[in-house]
Amino acid sequence: MDTVVHETEGDFGPRDWAQHPPYLSPLYKSTVLRSPRKPLIPMKQGLSVRSGPVFGQDSLDPLDHDLTKNGRVNGEPIGERMIVTGRVLDESGRPVPHTLLEIWQANACGRYVHRWDQHDAPLDPNFFGAGRCLTDAEGRYRFTTIKPGAYPWGNHHNAWRPAHIHFSLFGPSFLTRLVTQMYFPGDPLLPLDPIYNGVPEGARELLVSRFSIDVTEPVWALGYEFDIVLRGRQATPMEG
Amino acid sequence: MSQMLKQTPSQTVGPYFAYAWTPELYGRRPLATNRLATRDMPGEHIRIEGTVHDGEGQIVRDCVVEIWQAGADGRHAPGAAGFGRCGTDDQGRYFFDTVKPGACDEGHAPHIAVAVFARGMLSHAFTRLHFSDETAANAADPVLATVPADRRDTLIAKRAEVPGGVVYRFDIHIQGERETVFFDC
């Protein structure tokens, strides 16, 4: 890691709690004992949080952005090949350049590599399911992967997670850190999913990617677009 | 005035992030680790350790603690201790090997910024770690001053000098009677 600090002038706008899920969301049962209940204490932003880590090319391996290649052992991973691309922007629509994204996901059968995942679906010896990349100067990122499968979980009777890809972003500050999940358009499991529905109505739809025939590569892979908006710096009033 | 875009909503890390976030166990190169200090890094070398608990006091073994700190001189600079990440183990424990930071904001006590992620947390939580031996600086710290006196203790890592070196204990209670103070910042 390069511990270099971005430009640190100017406070970031607040976390918009009309957009983010509340800590307590009882239909997602794990939140019941894992939700802070005391009010958050407002904190003025100092340099200790306006700054943040910067990751460069040295944090990446050459195949990190291509999940169809970075886990190969003896062949190609099974499943529907896909491209996911989009822009990372701040709230003013400015691109967030050269920032790191991490993704992780289940394989085409809905099984994670994680040693705790005991779902009775096959592991794919050629799919690891995790990747990283940096945005370019225009804030654009791009991964090649396999479309993840849905999988059951223990939250309630017959609970199934809709297909999703986990995203982790840094942005220019410790305060712009974001972990989220990207979903797929038209997934019939979305209205039933307490994690997706933990997000306020009107905001959760931003987590659904768009199918794009323009991103789709002929005779190769389907394309999905998913833009991500991080907290931006507050406009500083002009002097004089 | 341009139209403001809406922030992308947060979602939980879920239970299965370890192979991506702390993938050493899976034979992969991690982005960041819990060992921030190199042997020759200036400053007092310390270990920060603690256990993460839920609202019933049970340990949380699918939690990730991330920290961001200045070096001993109070500056964020290349080669200084900076960003660390540690997943909790099967006993809900985490640790960081680092150096004690200097104060980086005028008038503030030395501290480390902390973010907590877990299965069951749809949004992550921000807190900050202060040091128990910084009594005077903590007493003058403007952020600690905004915290109710009876909860301030949740932000103070307790120093102990043990045979292996200096250890600061910082347990995190996501919820409950001893709930850690979390900030909106």
Automatic annotation (TrEMBL), chain A:
It comes from the Bacteria. Keywords: Dioxygenase, Oxidoreductase. Transmembrane segments: none annotated. Gene3D superfamilies: Aromatic compound dioxygenase. SUPFAM superfamilies: Aromatic compound dioxygenase. It is an enzyme of class 1 (oxidoreductase). Residues 84-112 form the Intradiol ring-cleavage dioxygenases domain. One of its GO terms (molecular function) is protocatechuate 3,4-dioxygenase activity. Belongs to the intradiol ring-cleavage dioxygenase family. PANTHER family: DIOXYGENASE, PUTATIVE (AFU_ORTHOLOGUE AFUA_2G02910)-RELATED, INTRADIOL RING-CLEAVAGE DIOXYGENASES DOMAIN-CONTAINING PROTEIN. This is Protocatechuate 3,4-dioxygenase subunit beta. It comes from Azospirillum endophyticum. The gene is pcaH.
Automatic annotation (TrEMBL), chain B:
Keywords: Dioxygenase, Oxidoreductase. GO terms for molecular function: protocatechuate 3,4-dioxygenase activity. It comes from the Bacteria. Gene3D superfamilies: Aromatic compound dioxygenase (2.60.130.10). The lineage of its organism: Bacteria, Pseudomonadati, Pseudomonadota, Alphaproteobacteria, Rhodospirillales. Belongs to the intradiol ring-cleavage dioxygenase family. InterPro entries: Intradiol_dOase_C, Intradiol_dOase_core, Intradiol_RC_Dioxygenase, Protocat_dOase_a. Pfam families: Dioxygenase_C. Its EC number is 1.13.11.3. This is Protocatechuate 3,4-dioxygenase subunit alpha. Residues 37-176 form the Intradiol ring-cleavage dioxygenases domain.
